[in-house]
Design brief:
The chain is an alpha/beta fold. It has helices spanning about 15-35, 50-60, 85-90, 115-130, 185-190, 205-215, 240; strands at about 5-10, 40, 65-70, 75, 140-145, 170-175, 180-185, 195-200, 230-235. The strands form 2 sheets. The chain has a 6-stranded parallel sheet with strand order 1-9-8-5-2-3. β8 (about 195-200), α6 (about 205-215) and β9 (about 230-235) form a beta-alpha-beta unit. α1 crosses α2. The chain starts with a strand and ends in a 5-residue tail after the last helix. The chain binds 6-phosphogluconic acid.
């Protein structure tokens, strides 16, 4: 599949999340039709919460038993912590749908040893995708957000994980948080069949323009997400796209 980049701009945030839900379900249907299952890595932060809630309300009776949910990154906190991406997804989606518990792959971020948590999660991915060392999983869809500094997942500028080329999941020390984050690496992101960035609101407009039209040296982490054999889709609302030269 040749690599493509598409930018979709929706008028409002509500329109954006509806379109994102349709894209999610559309990719899921195609993957289930072709392979009998859909593998997706969810993003954290605040932006996707509205998407997860919409999937729960509008697609509650979807074939969730054919869907396998992973997390592209996680904060180094227990699943009950307010900072936990798992907790956000659990409250906005998982508790409102019927999905087999074994279809949800949570990062074991309660482990005080962040590196051990990352290794554990990598082992889960290798088991699920039946891949050996040196091989990489191909997700049907990876959801990503855009941070104010151009980070995505938990791949922050000037952080150690940016140079990782063989691991699938690492514990990334983020100096500004004085904490580790557990995150997928670029090799995993760039082997996905589709990567969907979701950005909403005026406070994202400068960074959206910088990432999509700007030149940064070194490139911003979000600029390094270029699926080698897949689709890159940026879904934006008008406010987030306001500074793009279209
Ligand atoms: C996280 C995310 C992170 C997020 C961006 C945007 O764990 O925080 O994975 O990469 O997508 O920081 O966050 P907002 O959606 O809250 O702006």
């Amino acid at each position: 599949m040749p690599s493509t980049r598409a930018i979709e701009v929706l008028a409002t945030a509500a329109d954006l999340f509806h379109a994102a839900a349709e894209e999610f379900v559309g990719v899921a249907r195609a993957a289930i039709g072709a392979q009998g299952r859909f593998t997706v890595a969810l993003s954290g932060g605040s932006t996707p919460k509205a998407l997860y809630s919409l999937l729960a309300t509008n697609y509650a009776d979807f074939v969730w038993n054919r869907i396998f949910l992973f997390f592209g990154d996680e904060r180094h906190v227990p699943p009950t912590d307010p900072e936990s991406n798992y907790r956000m997804v659990n409250e906005s989606l998982l508790t409102k749908i019927t999905i087999p518990a074994e279809n949800v792959f949570r990062v074991p971020a309660e482990n005080p040893d962040a590196s051990a948590a990352a290794s554990d999660y990598e082992a889960q991915l290798r088991r699920f995708f039946e891949i050996k060392s040196g091989e990489f999983p191909r997700f049907d869809l990876i959801l990503l957000g855009l941070g104010p500094d151009g980070h995505t997942a938990s791949l922050f500028p000037d952080s150690p994980a940016l140079t990782e080329e063989s691991r699938l999941v690492v514990a990334n020390w983020v100096a500004k948080f004085n904490a580790h984050r557990i995150t997928f690496t670029f090799p995993v992101l760039n082997r996905a069949a589709e990567v969907m960035f979701l950005a909403s609101g005026a406070d994202k407009a400068d960074m959206v323009r910088q990432v999509l039209e700007g030149k940064s040296t070194p490139p911003l982490p979000s600029q390094r997400v270029q699926p080698s054999d897949g689709k890159l889709l940026w879904m934006l609302d008008e406010a987030a796209a306001a500074k793009l030269t279209r």
